[in-house]
Design the sequence.
DNA sequence: TCCTACGATGGACGGAATCCAAGTCAAGAA
DNA sequence: TTCTTGACTTGGATTCCGTCCATCGTAGGA
């Protein structure tokens, strides 16, 4: 966490209280929060923080590669602070719960050159779907 | 195509001109259209078709498994008529262009039991990302 | 041909995210 | 320490995407 703030300062970030609080919220809970949830938790510590600032800060963290944007359904994007540990996501088709998972192998290796159509392929995201134990009842 | 209309009729669909036009638009171009693009193309043939009807029909086609809903960015969902041929997607990080691709192997096989956390995993979607030849310039 | 339940309509509505002009403040300069 | 300035924040308006709903229309069976 202090690592994150350090890295941000090194990249020329102005360390405002708003940015600090957003970064702390993300670091505090390794879950997948929506922008509004981040805003709500941030507002507990800094009541007047605006939604626009939360969106701005999240966007900057994504650009810097410190946070990953996840959109597993058509609804609000979620923000995953676990950006430095490659992983994929397992999503419950019932309740929408998300778990980080670590599949074997590298999905990129499964895409042969003739299936790349000249693209400079740089990454792959895998979303596994299924019913979680709670929803399977 | 006529196959599709046949299948729909067999499932008790009332064959309205609106549904016919939407189905024909999807079948006509094997690209990944947004709902608004489907509406625009449908309106060329049936000017008074409403957006609500296009959304309804697309939703029904998805439920019936005739069309797949794809959301590769946080923007509008896209509709993929190629539902009967399993495939994944390759998305240009520059212009957003989408290609169907066929990777080797089965992503489900790469998720070991201890990484399933009790979920009844039923499927996996893979999104490859990279710059397309045009955007790479 | 007539009936009627299913489907279409379009305008209002809602959630998510972005935009913008005005105000504020972090942090380097003096 | 204070000053200065451009980067940052604010919140309300706006856009985009999609859904809802009351009303109207019509496909297709009787």
Sequence:
């Amino acid at each position: 966490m202090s690592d994150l703030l350090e890295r941000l300062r090194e990249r020329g970030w102005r360390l405002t209280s708003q940015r600090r609080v957003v970064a702390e919220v993300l670091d505090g809970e390794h879950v997948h929060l929506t922008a509004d949830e981040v805003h709500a938790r941030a507002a507990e510590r800094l009541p007047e923080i605006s939604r626009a600032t939360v969106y701005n800060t999240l966007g900057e963290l994504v650009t810097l590669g410190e946070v990953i944007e996840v959109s597993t359904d058509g609804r609000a994007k979620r923000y995953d602070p676990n950006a430095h540990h490659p992983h994929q996501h397992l999503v419950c088709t019932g309740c929408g719960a998300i778990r980080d998972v670590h599949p074997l192998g590298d999905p990129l290796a499964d895409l042969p050159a003739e299936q790349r159509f000249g693209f400079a392929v740089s990454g792959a995201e895998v979303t596994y779907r299924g019913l979680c134990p709670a929803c399977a009842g």
